[in-house]
Design goal:
single chain; 375 residues; Rossmann fold; three-stranded antiparallel β-sheet; 13% strand; elongated
């Protein structure tokens, strides 16, 4: 089966921050402009939480208005390198760059104290309204944004994908004809088209040089992260995607996986809580393990998720499971008899989860590696 052809005559590109258009789609924009296509870039934030590369610009960090204005100017200069590219910022509300932090597994996630105006704090439908407006006004035959994982995982990139996918579906519902939906394919990810050559590399380099506050440039490579260098002539890859309707239900499914986890812990803890070290021992090793296991799981959910949402679901499922196991079963079994150890397990497991939920502030201690900026 032949691969889909990436050859739009009107291309709308949705990005989260200034400089993303040059970093991820510089070759693509240059190629489309050279082929006389019309290109529009929709930028959702002004990169207010960016971390600058130049010492003389350090005072900008933390000053959202100044940083946003500076990066907006960089973006305008970068787009000039490509030629006649249309541009707009999302207009329903002025979203702020969310920033990000790195969790214990080295993955980028939302900051703990998320600003209410941050892009990743907005609902997908609100952001999608802005994208829908851009689609209806520009009338592209293709929309391009990050992949479902948001490229390297920035929460704002994920929001851009989710909102763009929702917008394409909404336009299809309204007009019965939606643009194609393309995403940037990451290295080692399957792709349908590869764009970039020596000519587009020169244009991409000029565009990235305009983003000097965020990108370290050299003769043949550029760098966003210290020690990681990328050649200007490395092609960019895209893949035709099919926006799934499940994206609109994602807010409700985010913590759904915690439901079976709570059931499993409730079942396992109930089955082992009466186990002793040996027949003659009075040491309730099973109860200790069950409570420690439950407490560790609850604490891990609170720390690693950065919110109580999954913990609520886990605790509710565990409580329901323990309550059910305390009833007499069809075969007459009673897994939680009316005795001291069983009462400690039944009420203790619920109490441990409640304690972790209501504790006002829990920080990850040694895990507190954070990146408040764009990267």
């Amino acid at each position: 089966m032949a691969k889909p052809q990436f050859n739009p005559t009107r291309l709308l590109i949705v990005h989260a921050h200034p400089d993303d258009e040059s970093l991820y789609t510089g070759h693509i924009i240059a190629d489309r402009i050279a082929k006389k296509s019309e290109v529009m870039v929709l930028t959702l934030t002004r990169g207010e939480r960016g971390k600058v590369k130049l010492a003389e610009l350090k005072p900008l960090e933390g000053n959202f208005a100044a940083m946003g204005a500076f990066r907006r100017t960089e973006l305008i200069e970068a787009l000039k390198a490509f030629g006649p590219v249309k541009h707009a910022f999302a207009g329903t509300r002025a979203y702020l760059d969310s920033g990000m932090r790195i969790n214990a597994f080295g993955k980028p996630i939302k900051p703990k104290n998320l600003d209410e105006l941050a892009l990743s704090a907005a609902s997908n439908s609100v952001i999608a309204d802005d994208v829908v407006k851009a689609i209806l006004e520009f009338k592209p035959d293709a929309v391009l944004t990050y992949n479902r994982r948001g490229g390297f995982g920035h929460p704002d990139h994920k929001k851009a994908y989710e909102a763009s996918a929702m917008a394409v579906r909404e336009v299809a519902r309204q007009t019965k004809r939606a643009p194609q939906f393309w995403v940037v394919a990451e290295p080692r990810e399957k792709f349908d088209a590869e764009i970039g050559d020596a000519k587009t590399a020169l244009i991409k380099k000029s565009a990235l040089e305009a983003h000097a506050s965020q990108v370290a440039v050299s003769a043949e490579t550029y760098s966003v992260v210290p020690g990681k260098y990328v050649r200007y002539d490395r092609p960019e890859r895209v893949r035709l995607a099919h926006p799934s309707s499940i994206a609109q239900f994602k807010p409700f499914l985010t913590f759904f996986w915690a439901l079976p986890l709570g059931v499993i812990f409730g079942l396992f803890g109930t089955l082992i809580h009466l186990v002793r070290a040996n027949d003659d021992s009075s040491t309730p090793i099973g109860l200790v393990v069950a409570l420690a296991m439950t407490g560790s799981a609850a604490l891990a959910l609170r720390l690693l998720r950065g919110s109580r949402g999954a913990l609520y679901v886990f605790s509710g499922a565990l409580t329901a499971t323990v309550f059910w196991m305390a009833q007499r079963q069809i075969g007459g079994e009673v897994f939680i008899p009316d005795q001291l150890l069983s009462n400690i397990w039944a009420y203790g497991s619920i109490g441990v989860c409640a304690l972790v939920i209501i504790f006002p502030k829990i920080q990850a201690g040694a895990w507190r590696r954070s990146s408040r900026g764009h990267r």
